[in-house]
């Protein structure tokens, strides 16, 4: 278990490029071997290198938990084949198909962009095997970018009020803290990835922020 800092080819927004569950991390092909080792050591996972629709912004385009993966519908067949032997996987035919930005999930629940279609909600429920609610985080509809959630804890936008924080805790069944990463960035989900065993955040994250991440994600 651990917390590491790194960047993806000079970019500290780890959550845009990578996505994680308790067993593996999905990362872009261009990721350096040294970064792979840091992820593996911090989170006790395998790293799968791929693209989604030919793109490197994997963390923006898919969301996963230990039960399944929901991914944008412009994913290519060969990319699906690289993932489908690990866990069940489904695409969402939605104008809001950047699943990583628009869905926040752990193994208990998912919070989704309030404008996602009912058809997509059904796919998310069935694939991730979770309760799904529509909502926002600090009035942000892109809930996957505004927070990070694991099966042990969560960290969200620092301006979320206490009532909304309590609702997040009740929905996801874990303690949730407020914080920032990457030297004051409130979009936690864009800055880091985490699971029950560890986390990786951007290289510009400060010591104080690291402490909040460890606390929020239950890594202490």
User: How big a fraction of the residues is strand?
Assistant: 25-35%
What form results from the Cα inertia axes? globular
Please trace the helix and strand order, writing H or E for each element.
Answer: EHEEHEHEEHEHEEHEHEEHEHEEH
Poorly predicted regions are none
Average residue-wise pLDDT:
96
Q: Would you tell me the structural class of the helices and strands?
A: alpha/beta
User: Could you give the distance between the termini?
Assistant: 9 Å
Count of separate structural domains: 1
Q: What's the helical proportion of residues? A: 25-40%
Widest sheet, order of strands: 1-15-14
Count of helical stretches: 10
How would you name the CATH homologous superfamily? L-arginine/glycine Amidinotransferase, Chain A
How many strands?
Answer: 15
| CA radius of gyration | 15 Å
Largest sheet: 3 strands, mixed
CATH class reads Alpha Beta
Looking at the structure, the CATH topology is L-arginine/glycine Amidinotransferase, Chain A
Task: Give an account of the 3D structure.
By secondary structure, the protein is an alpha/beta fold. It has one domain: L-arginine/glycine Amidinotransferase, Chain A, CATH 3.75.10. It is 32% helix and 26% strand. The chain contains ten helices and 15 strands. It has helices at 14-17, 33-43, 58-61, 77-83, 99-102, 118-128, 143-146, 162-172, 188-191, 207-216; strands spanning 2-6, 19-20, 24-28, 46-50, 62-64, 68-72, 88-92, 103-105, 109-112, 131-134, 147-149, 154-156, 176-178, 192-194, 198-202. The strands form five sheets. It has a three-stranded mixed β-sheet, sandwiched between helices. A three-stranded mixed β-sheet has the order 2-3-4, sandwiched between helices. A hairpin with a 3-residue loop joins β14 and β15. It is globular, with a radius of gyration of 15 Å. The N and C termini lie close together (9 Å). The relative contact order is 0.17. The mean pLDDT is 96.
